[in-house]
Structure formats: structure tokens, C-alpha cells
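Section 5: illustrative case.
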């Protein structure tokens, strides 16, 4: 419930993975053990340990300030806690990735994780039987062609064979159609392609360009993830038009070139 609510409110939360967030160094730990004091680390998650006399917990504390009104996320948690159930919802890894994107600081990391969260929702797809027949015809045509060298023919054959796997972008479009979000396709496609060009070294985006991409990417990704999750957790996508306001226009980072 907390992870879903944090996405709805664009906050991000780290719920832990069983690893220590603070602990003593080995030298100090071993010395204390010799004195009969067994100091456990401050584990972020579930800590399983031997119950023995002298067990203590190491803890550090700090003071922070909340600059966001917590009413919204607390209300969401109360609402969602009754609906998440005991079993983890399908594709819940997408929720984890979205939270990691929100928690991340660097723009490129945010872009990568947010889009990866949506990609995790894409079902495996296959070409139709008619499409498969056409692909095979192209392969046979290449095998008999003598206008190119053997090396060039092999390169083309390899390219055709890769067509047997439908592209992720095609799956993403079908995902949006299934979720009733077809109106987001144009903006999503632009963001997705810009991210691809940046990560694959096809275009250079300045740090400022990448930072400008963060808000629309994270907002769009969150809306898609929450809408898909709503089929399993009722209320996950409630009032998104109010709490996740999408920018009306996305300007590609090199649009002025």
C-alpha cells in the first residue's frame, strides 16, 4: 500500500531489501562480541538472528523536516491497505522500479528506471500467422539473391530474423490501447525514442535537456503503471487526472535543431 501510494503522490519510498542501513565495522563488532555484546546491524527489512543473551541493536538517528503535506499519501495508504490483499499483485516489480525512479537523484537514472517500469508491464507478443509468412518469404528471397555479397546477405538475413520478435515499442502501444490510454501514445513514443537515442549514443542531450525530460517521463510512467495495477488493486488509479497532472505538450530535446 505504501509503495503504491508513494507513486500516486510522486514521492518515492524505499521499503528495504533486508540489508543493513547502518552497522558497526567488523573490528568493533568482533571486539564487542568478545565482551558478550552481540550487536545487530540496523537492517532495512526483516532481520533473522539467533536469540541470545547480550543481543543489542546498533542504531543511528537524525532529524529531518517534511516539506510535503502528508495528508494525501496517508489517506491513500489507509484506502489501499484494505485492498492490496496478502499476495503480491502481478507485475508488482513495476511498482518497485517506479519508486526507485522517484527516489533516484540523477536525471538519466530516473528516465531509465521509469521507462523500465512500464516495459515490465508489456506482455510477450507474437506476430500474426500472416506476418510470419511474409517474414519467411523475405528470408527466402534474400537466400537466393546474388546482387549483394555473402557478408551483406548474411547481415540482411540476421536483420530479418530479428523481426521474429515484435519490438518492445509495438508491445507498449498495445499496452496503452488495452489500458484505454491511447491518447498518451504520441507523447510516450516521443519520450521513449528520446531516451533510446540518449542511452544508445545516437544523440547528445545536455544535462539540462535530460532534466527537462524527467517530469513528463515520470508522470506518464506512473500513470501507466497505476492504471495497469488498478485491475489488481482497486483504487490504485483513482483520481489520477487530479493528482498526476500531465504536461499538455512534450518538446523533444533537439526540436530546435
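Designed sequence:
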Amino acid at each position: 500500500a505504501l509503495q503504491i501510494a508513494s507513486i500516486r503522490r510522486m514521492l518515492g519510498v524505499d521499503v528495504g531489501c533486508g540489508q543493513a542501513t547502518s552497522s558497526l565495522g567488523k573490528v568493533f563488532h568482533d571486539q564487542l562480541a568478545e565482551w558478550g555484546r552481540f550487536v545487530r546491524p540496523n537492517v532495512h527489512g526483516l532481520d533473522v538472528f539467533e536469540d541470545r543473551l547480550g543481543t543489542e541493536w546498533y542504531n543511528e538517528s537524525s532529524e529531518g523536516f517534511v516539506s510535503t503535506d502528508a495528508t494525501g499519501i496517508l489517506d491513500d495508504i489507509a484506502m489501499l491497505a484494505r485492498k492490496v490483499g496478502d499476495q503480491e499483485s502481478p507485475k508488482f516489480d513495476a511498482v518497485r522500479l517506479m519508486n526507485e525512479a522517484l527516489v533516484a537523484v540523477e536525471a538519466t537514472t530516473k528516465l531509465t528506471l521509469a521507462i523500465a517500469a512500464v516495459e515490465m508491464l508489456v506482455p510477450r507478443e507474437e506476430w500474426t500467422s500472416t506476418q510470419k509468412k511474409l517474414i519467411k518469404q523475405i528470408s527466402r528471397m534474400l537466400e537466393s539473391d546474388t546482387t549483394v555479397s555473402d557478408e551483406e546477405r548474411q547481415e540482411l538475413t540476421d536483420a530479418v530474423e530479428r523481426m521474429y520478435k515484435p519490438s518492445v515499442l509495438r508491445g507498449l502501444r498495445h499496452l496503452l490501447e488495452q489500458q484505454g490510454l491511447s491518447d498518451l501514445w504520441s507523447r510516450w513514443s516521443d519520450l521513449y525514442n528520446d531516451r533510446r537515442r540518449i542511452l544508445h549514443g545516437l544523440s547528445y542531450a545536455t544535462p539540462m535537456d535530460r532534466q527537462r525530460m524527467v517530469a513528463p517521463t515520470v508522470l506518464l510512467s506512473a500513470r501507466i503503471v497505476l492504471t495497469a495495477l488498478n485491475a489488481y488493486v482497486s483504487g490504485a488509479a483513482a483520481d489520477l487526472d487530479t493528482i498526476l497532472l500531465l504536461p499538455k505538450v512534450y518538446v523533444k530535446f533537439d526540436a530546435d535543431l
